[in-house]
């Protein structure tokens, strides 16, 4: 019985030692578990915070994406409007360019026609001028001949005039002599 009692006492001590050992292990595991729980709690709070920030970032990104899409659509619409206006203006300018080109062609044809007409008119005027120059030269020659003849005739007339004037002076002198002779005869009583 003593042996059995000692044996049981030994077993009890072994069991208490084992229980103490298990209790220490349990306390260590509880402490470790507490640390894990606290770490998990911190991780969950951090994850929750990250999720909140991610959600806010996602919402901000969606707002930014929507605003960027609206701005892009507005810019696209403005660009289309500008393109339409420029296209319309280009058509108008192209039509004006074609009109100006046609007017230039018409003016060039008109210029060529006027140039040809001017050349013909210049040739006609040159011929008329040459003819008039020839007629003038001929007339000048004729007038020079007439002037020469008139000068000769004037010389002859001057000469004849001088002769007539000399004869007139001679006749006047003779008349004066006749008058003086007549007066002298009238004064003579015997001849009366």
TrEMBL record:
One of its GO terms (cellular component) is Golgi membrane. Transmembrane segments: none annotated. This is GOLI4 protein. Residues 5-60, 90-117 form a coiled coil. The gene is Golim4_1. It comes from Platysteira castanea. InterPro entries: GOLIM4. Keywords: Coiled coil. It comes from the Eukaryota.
């Amino acid at each position: 019985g003593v042996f059995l009692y000692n044996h049981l006492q030994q077993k009890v001590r072994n069991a208490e030692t084992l229980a103490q050992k298990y209790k220490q292990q349990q306390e260590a595991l509880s402490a470790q578990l507490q640390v894990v729980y606290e770490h998990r709690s911190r991780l969950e709070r951090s994850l929750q915070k990250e999720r909140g920030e991610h959600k806010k970032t996602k919402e901000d990104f969606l707002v930014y994406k929507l605003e960027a899409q609206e701005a892009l659509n507005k810019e696209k619409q403005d660009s289309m409007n500008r393109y339409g206006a420029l296209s319309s203006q280009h058509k108008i300018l192209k039509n004006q360019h074609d009109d100006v080109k046609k007017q230039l062609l018409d003016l060039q044809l008109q210029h060529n026609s006027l140039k040809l007409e001017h050349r013909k008119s210049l040739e006609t005027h040159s011929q008329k001028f040459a003819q008039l120059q020839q007629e003038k030269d001929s007339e000048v020659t004729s007038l020079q001949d007439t002037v020469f003849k008139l000068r000769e005739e004037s010389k002859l007339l001057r000469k004849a005039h001088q002769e007539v004037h000399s004869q007139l002076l001679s006749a006047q002198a003779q008349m004066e002599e006749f008058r003086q002779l007549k007066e002298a005869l009238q004064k003579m009583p015997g001849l009366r």
